[in-house]
Amino acid sequence: MTFEPHFFGEAFLGIAGALPLTLFLTLAAMINGFVIGLAVAIIRLRKPAVIRPLAEFYVSFTRGTPVVLHLFIVYLGLPMLLDTLADHYGWGFRSKDIPLFVLVAAALSLTAGAYMSEIIRSGILAVPGGQLEAAYSVGMTTFQAVRRVIFPQAIGASVPGMCNLFVGILHGSSLAYMVSLMEINGMAMMLASKNWSYLEPLAAVALIYWAIVLVIERLAAVVEKRWKVYSAGGVAG
């Protein structure tokens, strides 16, 4: 076996063409996961008796099972559920109308939401209790104190965890090829099997993943540094 630079270049360009899809899946999962995680974290901190067990089960089950399982549960289960409801209520909408990338993004969002809830919850708990009392002493309401004092500091403390989660979801998106969605890893595997040469496409996709992670690490370092300066001021303006 020999390494073919020409094929490596072709594979790199072909794989790079699928990069927007990979970034979309990852960013969509992180954004949706943040919303889900924030809601779940608040539920677990406020401890409402009715829905807290559901939130606890969601976090425990999702963190205790592999990403590929979440992918296939959504890929196989969600269309079945939607078609059953459509038949029962007479909807014109069918699961076949859902783009495949939406199903994959939904599965990754559920995964990200469970981990994000722990990251946000830990960030909130890391803020000293005296911060809330200080906010009350200057006349803030609970909502104002959380929004202007607790939440900014909690997010700042959560940046490293969010960066690690982004990397994890980026890597998790590589499983999308198992349901025939050609993101960068799927494209690499397709080119490798088509040309009966795996080393060049795998080397190319490894470099692309590595480059993305390096960029995210640098951005996270800048955000964390600026947020620490911002939080040092105590109260947001």
Automatic annotation (TrEMBL):
Keyword Cell membrane: yes
SUPFAM superfamilies the record matches: MetI-like
Keywords, in A-Z order: Cell membrane, Membrane, Transmembrane, Transmembrane helix, Transport
Transmembrane helix as UniProt keyword: yes
Annotated signal peptide: none
UniProt-annotated location(s): Cell membrane
Transmembrane regions listed in the UniProt entry: 12-45, 57-78, 98-116, 154-178, 198-216
Pfam family name, one: BPD_transp_1
Highest taxon in the source lineage: Bacteria
Membrane-topology descriptor: Multi-pass membrane protein
Entries under PROSITE patterns matching the protein: ABC_TM1
Domain (ABC transmembrane type-1) ranges: 19-220
InterPro entries: AA_ABC_transptr_permease_3TM, ArtM/GltK/GlnP/TcyL/YhdX-like, MetI-like, MetI-like_sf
Sections of the chain in a coiled coil: none
Stored NCBIfam families: HEQRo_perm_3TM (TIGR01726)
Family the entry assigns: Belongs to the binding-protein-dependent transport system permease family.
The protein, known as: Amino acid ABC transporter permease
